[in-house]
Amino acid sequence: MILTLPQNNSELPGHIAIIMDGNGRWARQRGEKRSAGHEAGAKQVDAITTECARIGIRQLTLYTFSVENWRRPKSEVAALMRLLVRYLRREQSTMMENNIKFRAIGRLSDLPGGALREIRKSEEITSDNSGMTLCLALSYGGRTELTEAARTIARKAKAGEIKPDDITEQTFAEALYTAGMPDPDLLIRTAGEMRISNFLPWQTAYTEFYFTHVLWPDFGPAELHKAIREYAGRERKFGEVRPTEKTRGN
């Protein structure tokens, strides 16, 4: 059963990020190959993306493939890249129907040529869409992103384009893969793990975290709504205090 969402749209997270974990365990529980879990997970991406667009989420960012994932067996990596290509080709029409803009972040030059071409095609054909942004983090690593941002800023400083004392948090944010994107309001991780695993460490400084034991292939709209309901019930103060707390001297 899908839970009732907050009636006030201001209680919805504008940007949801998800660490999609548990595909392998889902397949193992059923005595199937890991590839079956990845296929089931890809179908859930479609369901969650469509639901987020329907209810008015402005951006959905999915941790799809990390820099560490390249260490997996070559056969599994190759299968994941083929699945990525099939997913993008299949979902291009869905993204257009739902007015979704597509974007990918990460060390994209690491990806096979076919996958990169399909990414660029999806970005191009959806570039004029004005609805939700779907962002896939591919060959992504938070520490890698921070390191590359530092290098970019250092090169500008060396070239005299910026003075070290003029470097601000905004300067750094503009050098990240996510430049121009809002920070996540809510980060969801499935499958019971309670860590961010090198995912958006800068951007999630004030993000609300939601951890669930539900495996990603089983994380449907009802589970999404449950996470949003919990988010809506939290108070986000960003280091400040409420006016009532000030009067009490807390």
| Fourth-tier CATH superfamily name | Decaprenyl diphosphate synthase-like
C-alpha-based Rg, rounded: 19 Å
**Strand order in space, largest sheet:** 3-4-2-1-5-6
What is the end-to-end distance? 41 Å
| Helical run tally | 8
What number is the mean pLDDT?
93
β-strand percent reads 5-15%
Outline the biggest β-sheet. 6 strands, parallel
CATH class: Alpha Beta
What CATH calls the topology is Undecaprenyl pyrophosphate synthetase
**What's the structural domain tally?**
1
Structural class: alpha/beta
Order of helices and strands: EHHEHEHEHHEEHH
Q: Which shape, going by the Cα principal axes? A: globular
Overall number of strands:
6
Low-pLDDT segments, ≥5 res = none
CATH second-level architecture: 3-Layer(aba) Sandwich
The residue fraction in helices comes out at 40-55%
